[in-house]
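STRUCTURE:
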């Protein structure tokens, strides 16, 4: 994809003014880093608060008397059991239980939901949901919103100073605080944080107020990636794909057991088959010996040189203080302490299974 084909963020001029360095991601022209650099952006988010422009992601409003039925058909989810304002991490699966996308679904009212989809999958997700809605009374509306994330231990205080009331929001809840606004308390960093979807004019005014606070700074895509990797969170297209099932990915916690056992969602029979025979591979955390990061798409070998797996995400963890990675290894070998080897620039680097996450989650759950 050429630069001319990339989509542009509504607030791109603000990123240019902040001296962002841009790059392509999921079909979008995205700020990768700012003047401070990746290391400082990462650590500032962990210590204070970071502002992320995630407008490349897509918000869909799903409504109608059959909205619950559509979600239960499309996802391994009991949408009817969600309380008002409750958010749930879930998936769109194909017939083989491969992950088309991972989503966050929030119940706004009895028959209204907000669905947050990943950037590169938004068109596929929309087509998939519309295809499954045949015969149902449901409306799927893509929303034209700026989407911002404010993440870090001082995120709540920064928003309060800017006049944004977060009272009543705990981890994995979402509300509509005013017309055409959606605000949730979740995130992709392992820190406490919020996401706000709002019209562009409102977003520009909010960003101006937020950046008056020295505790907040713009954070680019590179630090977003290192933050989520330290937190052990998957990136669709790398750690999870349409050929990866939730069992292999270690994401069964997101599917209630009764839905696993008796649900009729797309891919339900395939997933039950996988659970009955055990997944062939498992996602694990990986820590390379030394300071050299092992990045995605590097093969893993046992001591005898036999291929046993592959790294799907990797880099250096500024907060962890060492290289961090995730990948898949054969299930019998997916035990803490097991050692593998990766070839990086001609060097044979030892890499051990490490518990996830690499840094503790600090969500506000109560």
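SEQUENCE:
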């Amino acid at each position: 994809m050429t630069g001319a084909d990339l989509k542009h963020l509504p607030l791109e001029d603000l990123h240019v003014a902040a001296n962002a360095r841009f790059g392509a991601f999921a079909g979008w022209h995205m700020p990768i880093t700012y003047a401070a650099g990746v290391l400082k952006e990462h650590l500032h988010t962990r210590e204070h608060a970071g502002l992320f422009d995630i407008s490349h992601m897509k918000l869909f409003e799903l409504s109608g008397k059959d909205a619950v039925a559509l979600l239960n058909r499309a996802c391994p989810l009991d949408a009817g059991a969600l309380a008002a304002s409750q958010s749930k991490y879930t998936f769109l699966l194909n017939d083989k239980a491969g992950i088309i996308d991972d989503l966050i679904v929030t119940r706004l009212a009895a028959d209204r939901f907000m669905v947050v989809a990943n950037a590169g999958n938004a068109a596929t997700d929309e087509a998939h949901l519309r295809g499954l809605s045949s015969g149902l009374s449901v409306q799927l509306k893509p929303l034209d919103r700026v989407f911002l994330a404010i993440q870090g231990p001082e995120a709540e205080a920064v928003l309060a100073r800017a006049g944004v009331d977060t009272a009543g929001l705990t981890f994995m809840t979402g509300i509509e605080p005013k017309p055409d606004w959606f605000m949730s308390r979740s995130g992709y960093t392992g820190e406490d944080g919020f996401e706000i979807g709002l019209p562009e004019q409102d977003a520009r005014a909010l960003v101006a107020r937020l950046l008056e606070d020295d505790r907040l700074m713009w954070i680019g895509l590179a630090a977003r990636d290192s933050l989520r990797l330290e937190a052990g969170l998957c990136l669709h297209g790398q750690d999870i794909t349409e050929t990866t099932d939730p069992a292999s990915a270690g994401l069964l916690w997101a599917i209630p057991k009764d839905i696993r056992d008796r649900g009729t969602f797309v891919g339900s029979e395939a997933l039950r088959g996988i659970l009955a025979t055990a997944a062939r591979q498992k996602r694990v955390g990986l820590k390379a010996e030394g300071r050299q990061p092992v990045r995605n798409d590097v093969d893993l070998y046992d001591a005898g040189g036999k291929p046993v797996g592959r790294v799907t995400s990797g880099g250096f963890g500024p907060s962890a203080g060492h290289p961090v990675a995730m990948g898949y290894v054969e299930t019998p070998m997916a035990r803490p302490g097991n050692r593998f080897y990766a070839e990086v620039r001609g060097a044979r680097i030892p890499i051990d299974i490490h518990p996830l996450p690499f840094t503790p989650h600090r969500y506000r759950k109560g």
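REMARK: The longest strand covers residues 99-109.
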